[in-house]
Amino acid sequence: MKIYEELISRGLIAQVTDEKEIRELVNDGNATFYIGFDPTADSLHVGHFVALCLMKRLQMAGNKPVVLLGGGTGYIGDPSGRTDLRSMMTPETIQHNCDCFKNQIEKFIELDEDKAIMVNNIDWLLDLNYVELLREVGSHFSINNMLRAECYKQRMEKGLSFLELNYMIMQSFDFYHLFINHGCNMQFGGDDQWSNMLGGRELIRRKLGKNSYAMTNTLLMNSEGSKMGKTAKGAVWLDPNKTSPFEFYQYWRNINDADVLKCIRMLTFLPLDQINEMSKWEGSQLNEAKEILAFELTKLVHSEEKAKDAKSSSHSLFITGTDDSNMPSTEISKNQLVHGVINVIELMVECKLTTSKSEARRVIQQGGLSINDIKVDSVDLCISSLALEKGIKIRKGKKKYHKAFMI
Which InterPro entries match (predicted)? Predict the structure, then answer.
């Protein structure tokens, strides 16, 4: 099976501009394609998985990825799928986040001038002359068409700023720049990016003519696998310092039954024949499928050794209740104690089991917290320094475990 047909079989493609041409380009290894990553945080998360895996698959088939870091568009912020204005980041934060993204993406994509390149749109967007941009680029965009775009609909309800309105123009200019300077003939993106991507293709047509337009194509990725990660309570990061390999493994191990085969098909590199056989599994076999999914993705992000450790720890913890060596943990210092104790709500926030005290209070009131396998029934419970010196095991819900200790 050729790569384009494999992408279809895995459910990775939602929509394309010219299927015949795209099929020929990617199957012959002649696609130079870009996917953009705006540095909105200091780590990629599971919502980026479809894009990363798609890039890797296409590179393995001989196509050339152009990894675009949005250091320039990060100054504006993508309004797609949002009801509020993104927080403005400082230039230092944007650069730091770009550096973090680069380190993580290098684990997926082999960066080599002939095989893949990484670029940052800050290198061309920040040097643009405003009046020249209005004349040479802005004149090719219809405000009426822009406001009908899906990426602006939610923001229109609360008020779309002129700043955000420019995002489509900037992203469109990215494709134009990459086409001119790097021979980029294809762009990939999620469903909330379709209007922006078509804007880039249309800009090339208007600026360079129909012949150039015919040389470009747009592919819309099926974002279903990414959305499974985005809808999780709390972000699941690819940075092991933000989400440990054990937590990462557990996230995928506990995915819904209805989603496990979809994720295996879209996100792992297991052969389709093997996955097709697994699609017949049901009942308790789905737990085995979840373990396979968790192991394969943890191996992909963190290494095979870390995946083996996470799997072993998960089995030991949830089956025998013994090994907690890889359980996420937090050290509590003495100066965090008041009169030799720490309130359980303070402890939950400190361990990042909840993002706020009010959330911690709700978890306890709903019976969702245990310490050393004893359910916590009071928000006034305090943990002593003696208990912390021995180490305590905290369980939030059924599956989220954490250790707290004091040396």
Answer: aa-tRNA-synth_I_CS, aa-tRNA-synth_Ic, Rossmann-like_a/b/a_fold, S4_RNA-bd_sf, SYY-like_C, Tyr-tRNA-ligase, Tyr-tRNA-ligase_bac-type, Tyr-tRNA-ligase_bac_1
Tokens of 219: 């592919």
116 forms beta bridges with 112
237 inside domain: no
Quick one: DSSP state of residue 161? -
Task: Supply 156's token pair.
Answer: 């229109």
Q: Which pair of structure tokens corresponds to residue 140? A: 């090719």
Asked if 55 and 106 sit in the same domain, the reply is yes
Q: 280: domain range?
A: 244-320
- Burial of 121 from C-beta contacts in 10 A (0-12 / 13-18 / 19+): buried
Token output for 357: 């005290």
Q: Which of 209, 206, 224, 220 has its CA nearest to residue 18? A: 220
> φ, ψ for residue 163 (rounded to 5)?
-55, -50
Q: Cα–Cα distance between 250 and 392 in angstroms, integer? A: 20
Report how far residue 355's alpha carbon sits from residue 350's, in angstroms, rounded to the nearest whole number. Answer: 9
- Domain final position from 295, 320, 345: 320
In a domain, 287, yes or no: yes
Nearest to 19 by CA among 140, 186, 189, 225: 186
Per-residue pLDDT of the chain (407 residues; tens, 9 = 90+): 899 999 999 999 999 999 999 999 999 999 999 999 999 999 999 889 899 999 999 999 999 999 999 999 988 876 665 555 567 889 999 999 999 999 999 989 999 888 999 999 999 999 899 898 888 899 999 888 888 887 777 677 777 878 888 888 999 999 999 999 999 999 999 877 888 899 999 999 999 887 887 788 988 888 665 555 444 445 799 999 888 899 899 999 989 999 999 999 999 999 999 999 999 898 889 999 999 999 999 999 999 999 999 998 888 776 555 566 667 889 999 889 998 899 999 999 999 899 899 999 999 999 999 998 899 999 999 999 989 988 898 989 877 888 898 87
230 is in an annotated binding site: yes
| CA atoms lying within 13 Å on the CB side of residue 72 | 21
Taking the CA atoms of the chain, what radius of gyration do you get in angstroms?
24
Q: Is 167 annotated as a binding residue?
A: yes
pTM: 0.81
- Please give the tally of structural domains in the chain: 3
Q: 331 forms bridges with which residues in the sheet?
A: 405
User: Do the annotations mark residue 34 as ligand-binding?
Assistant: yes
Q: Give the pair of three-digit tokens for residue 144.
A: 């009426």
CA 325 to chain centroid, in Å, comes to 27
Domain-ending residue, one of 201, 229, 257: 229
CB atoms within 10 A of CB 142: 9
